[in-house]
Write a structure and sequence with these properties.
Elements: H1 2-39, H2 44-67, H3 76-104, H4 110-136, H5 142-157
Helix pairs in contact: 1-2, 1-4, 2-3, 3-4
Amino acid sequence: MEHRSSGLQRLVREMAKFGAVGGAGVLVNLGVFNLVRHVSDLPVVRASIIATVVAIAFNYVGFRYWTYRDRDKGGRTRELTLFLLFSAIGLVIENGVLYLATYGFGWDSPLQSNVFKFVGIGVATLFRFWSYRSWVFRAMPAREAVAAESIVARQSRKPASKPRQRVP
């Protein structure tokens, strides 16, 4: 029973960290989206794609160095490739919702664009959470995780040793 609750606690902690980074990423995404919309004449979906790419870069740093910092760090090229692949799929999901609302239904006022951009982010976030935790930032195999935890525990228990002088 204790093992299950600790696994649940880890999942809740992971979801909270993912949500914190993702929430900041949403602010970056919406901020860049509205900035690009106001300073350029780009169509709404192109402005959204630019904002999504900026948010993807922001989120990678947050996920790698905070949310999933304890995950397997081997194979950074593989990790980044998968992150970009799944992020691109999320980009299509997110901006597909906005595209459908804008060009399919004609909902293109600034308020409607922001609402459907936000809805698209929400739908894409479900996919991103699953794909990032399953494929990109994979947990270390149990044996390696236990070994890493025991090394950290041993190092934190060691008292600071004083340098010894050798007498000949």
